[in-house]
Design brief:
alpha/beta; Rossmann fold; 9 helices
Length: 202
């Protein structure tokens, strides 16, 4: 099925990891000073598109990066992440916690999928819920462009979802890294702006 033939009812805004622990000043990353203006701006940029999809019968899907608690509540953190982000601690990105949740500005999500790695499809129920809900087209946004976004886009591509990357709906910790990641995704799937998708869907 071509992108033009996919109705809005089968279209989802897939928001990758825009959670309080990443974005809010009181979240895990905010307290550690791990922020970027381009990341902080994403919820406000994406809200008009999310609202349009809700009004028109589309979907808003949120992935939630998760640190699974083990014995005593201590989080299971991958070695590479522990090395990169040594400030992560017990309670951060805990399932059901405030920090784990989608930021208020983009609430509510129609579907929420926990993930433990970069890809939203790796050992998650993502593909199952998308197929179950009849979702065929994904407008992918979120953080970081070179990590969770890029790996999720590639995973969606090989599963033959019609996938569109929202260039100004994603961000990384530097603009250079973001631009490089977007350039690498252009041969994989369509890249568009939020304004372009609002015009097409509206």
């Amino acid at each position: 099925m071509s992108s033009d033939a996919i109705p809005i009812e089968k279209t989802a805004l897939l928001i990758v990891d825009l959670q309080n622990d990443f974005l809010h000043p009181d979240g895990a990353y905010g307290k550690a000073g791990q922020t970027a203006a381009s990341i902080a701006a994403l919820p406000g940029r994406l809200k008009p598109l999310a609202d349009l999809l809700r009004r028109r019968g589309g979907w808003v899907v949120s992935t939630q990066f998760t640190l699974v608690p083990a014995k005593g509540g201590e989080p299971m953190i991958a070695p590479h992440l522990k090395s990169l982000r040594p400030f992560l601690k017990k309670g951060d990105f805990m399932p059901g916690g405030w920090g784990h949740s989608l930021v208020d500005e983009l609430q509510p999500a129609d579907l929420v999928v926990e993930k433990i790695a970069y890809s939203a499809f790796y050992q998650t129920r993502m593909e199952w819920v998308l197929r179950k809900c009849g979702i065929e087209r994904l407008l992918v946004a979120g953080i970081v462009t070179n990590g969770g976004v890029a790996t999720t886009v590639r995973a969606a591509h090989v599963r033959e979802f019609d996938t569109i990357v929202l260039e100004d709906g994603c961000a990384a910790f530097s603009d250079e890294v973001h631009d490089t990641a977007i350039a690498a995704l252009k041969p994989v799937d369509r890249v568009a702006t939020i304004e372009e998708m609002i015009a097409e869907l509206g």
